[in-house]
Amino acid sequence: MQIPNGFTFRQPEINWNSRQVLGLHPSFSTLVQALISARTANPHHLAKNKWSTDPDVVANEVEQYNVRVCISMGWSKYLTEEGGGEIPFSSSQSLLDSSQLSAAVSSIKQLWSGIKSVNDWLDGNLPAVPIEQAEKRAAVCVACPMNGVGDFSKWFVAPAAAAIKRQLEKLQNRKLATSQDEKLNICTACLCANKLSVWVPAEIKLAHMSPETKAALHESCWLRAEERTLVPA
Fold it and tell me: Residues with Cβ < 8 Å from 207, sequence gap 6 or more?
């Protein structure tokens, strides 16, 4: 759902403003592609600032930026919490609420960290864990109280949902499936799609996971157990 005046983004280092380039109400994907093009056209700043041009990573940045806009303006109806409920802003709240902003950005970073770890595995065409290990992991996830439903759709659902859908299609193309797939949902601790995660080598998932997210994992999580068996690099 478009926010008032449409999605927006500014990259002050190169004096780039989506409003000036795209006008009002660009589609989310158009804005992401335009930002990627602007960064690519400025290789010096691209390298200096270590900007990403990966579509999923840039989509995450654009999403975070627009969450900040919504929170600073008190536009609660454009943000949803787990389960689809509206963020409870007071009617007088129009200035930046740092606690709401922190929670929103934290959730988005957490979500996209999980997506990035799966992208690294899929796009690198790296091997999946053996089917026996994936089945064992899946059984743990199914029994876990953190095997929630639909948790990836907390904020602006479209970019994240599209990224996860692409990943699931690639998983299907690789003919990877467990006997528990219909029961695998979203991990409410790390916000990863369990159907994907059970195939990803532990070291790849851990490389993108913050200490806070790791601490939030259920004590029975297979990732906790496997981390203890990894040989330090």
Answer: 117, 120
What percent of the chain is helix, strand and coil (3-state, nearest 5)?
Answer: 60, 5, 35
**Structural contact between residues 113 and 209, judged by C-beta atoms closer than 8 angstroms:** yes
Mean residue pLDDT across the chain: 81
| Apex 45 CA angle, 162 and 58, nearest 5 | 5
Q: Cβ(161)–Cβ(111) under 8 Å? A: no
Please say whether the beta carbons of 145 and 205 come within 8 A.
no
Other beta carbons within 10 angstroms of residue 178's beta carbon come to 21
Answer yes or no: are the C-beta atoms of 21 and 8 closer than 8 Å.
Answer: no
Q: How far is CA 14 from the centre of its chain?
A: 26
Q: How confident is the model at residue 134 (pLDDT cuts 50, 70, 90)?
A: very high
Q: One-letter amino acid identity for 29?
A: S
Q: Which of 35-39, 40-44, 52-56, 83-87 has the lowest mean pLDDT?
A: 83-87
Q: pTM, whole model, 2 decimals?
A: 0.57
Model pLDDT for residues 137-146, shown as the tens digit of each residue = 999 999 998 8
